[in-house]
Amino acid sequence: MFDTIRHLSFYTILEEHVRSYPGKIAHAFGGQSTTFAQLLERVDRLIDALETSGVVAGDRILWLGQNSDRIMELLIAASQLDAMLCPSNWRQSKTELAAQIDDLEPKVIFWQNEEVGPEIRAGRELASFKGGRWLQHDGDGEDSYESFLASGRADRNDHREVDTRAGALIIYTAAFDGRPNGAVLSQNTILLENLVLAPTQRISNETVFLAVGPLFHLGTLMQCLTVFHLGGTNVFVRRSDAQSIAQSIHDHKCTRTWLVSKTMDEIIELNHDRRYDISSLRSIPYTEEWNRMVTVEPVETHVPGYGQTEVMGLAVLPQYGRHAIGIFGRPSPLCHMRIVDSEDRDVEPGQVGEIVFRGPIVMNGYWRRPELNAQRHRNGWHHTNDLGRREADGSLTFIGPKVQMIKSGVENIYPAEVEACIRRHPAVADCGIIGVPHPQWIQTVKAIVVLKPGSEATEKDIVEHCRAQIASYKKPSSVEFREDMPRLASGGVNYKLLDEIYGGGNYPGGETRTS
After folding, report:
1. Which residues does the UniProt record annotate as the domain AMP-binding enzyme C-terminal (predicted)?
2. Of 26, 192, 284, 463, which sees the most CB atoms within 10 A?
3. Percent with pLDDT over 70 in the chain
4. Which of 227-241, 379-393, 399-413 has the highest mean pLDDT?
5. Which whole number is the average pLDDT over 447-474?
6. Whole-prediction pTM value?
7. CATH-assigned architecture of domain 406-510
8. Is pLDDT above 70 for 294?
């Protein structure tokens, strides 16, 4: 029986904001602002238009475009039909886009022509799936977003019974196993995580958040969802560029955003004459010139913590524990965390193992990946494929991706732990760890190291550095130096190539490292 008295959803939250914040701006994008009341009317129209187009529970809606307030509109509308929205990575190649279209088989696709149109059209042509209704979100005419929205009724008062435990959002994750996987997240999971992020990220109904990072990642989208939930205002820029960011902060008095140092430098140069007032922005300390432009907050208030898409963003936060170099905090109140070995047994504090979670912030699973779901959710715990270590005080130190284990005698060695250690050497710019076959020990550890320009270090220096910081059996038996580190398109180290060049192999289970 549907329990209406306890029902809470994106849609009912929007309804309450209309009553609680009359006339308040919910979204701003491209020179236009939308109040919560206007947003509700648009969402009602979208629900009717989508339903008229045949969208039913379980269907997928694909967004092929850059940042826009329409992503939030579509998410709320789709969730009222128990359908799922997937904001796609607009930086993908035509081949990758085609694979995602074939994987999702979306009922409706909203696409953007400006800047990304040629690659999207090529991906559509390449895809085997030829169904779905295609609508241009930045176009005019019958097959445009606004025309589609206008075709829907605005007087729905859409009080329907929806399952907030069902999937509402699909976010594709990095392709560590050779192909991206769509993590399915429910309304319940998102709304509960919002209540964790609100106090820890200092989000309230007074927040004006500038969405700069791509909304196909949770790093920015989870902030937007929390701001919406709390009744704040979201301001969107199509993509990250200094002029649009500075103008938006100036126009809307944005209080929070996420910027990389390169963008901050560009804003400093652009705003040297103070044409833009960005003093409303609360920021970590940076350069003296930047600090004079913004409202500086202690760096501790902006430390994110540890998480991943599959647990709705952040699961371990420094606000629940001390923060120091390498220490990420403690689990949020909405999850349990363990550190386990290859047999899913708890390891002792101070020992490295895989980070596993359970709780309501864990995803429903990957879209159309039953075998992967069984593996990643075995024994009732979500296995992150990331390595961590519980410190003596119970806090977490994140080590790095698990990727592939090296077997040396009876000992299991995780390359990420050794790499993290070597990268702390003052002369090291980058490194990769592989396992080399050994007739007695199964494998030995080899380090491939890139030194910083002008720095020097010997094989002995690297080995002794490791001996002093990690267990002796984990230290490399040999070190090779090279000028650069081969990397995959995703940015990860190309371990397969390192194995080919330096004789790696004999990994447990006979597996070949692919990333």
Report:
1. 417-491
2. 26
3. 95
4. 227-241
5. 92
6. 0.85
7. 2-Layer Sandwich (3.30)
8. yes
CB atoms within 10 A of CB 155: 9
Q: For residue 437, give every residue at least 6 positions away whose Cβ sits within 8 Å of its Cβ, in sequence order, or none.
A: 443, 503, 505, 506
**Which residues fall within 8 angstroms of residue 411, CB to CB, at 6 or more apart?**
473, 474
Torsion sign across C-alpha atoms 94, 99, 102, 105: negative
Laid out side by side, the sheet with 167-172 consists of 133-136, 108-111, 60-64, 84-87, 167-172, 182-186, 365-366
pLDDT of residue 514: 47
Domain with CATH 2.30.38.10 in the chain: 312-401
Tell me the mean pLDDT in the region 69-93: 96
What fold characterizes domain 4-235?
A: Rossmann fold (3.40.50)
Please name the amino acid found at residue 342.
Answer: S
Lookup: tokens for 366: 């990957």
Place of tokens 């958040």: 209
In CATH terms, 312-401 corresponds, of 2.60.40.10, 3.30.830.10, 1.10.3720.10, 2.30.38.10, to 2.30.38.10
User: How high does pLDDT run on average in the chain?
Assistant: 92
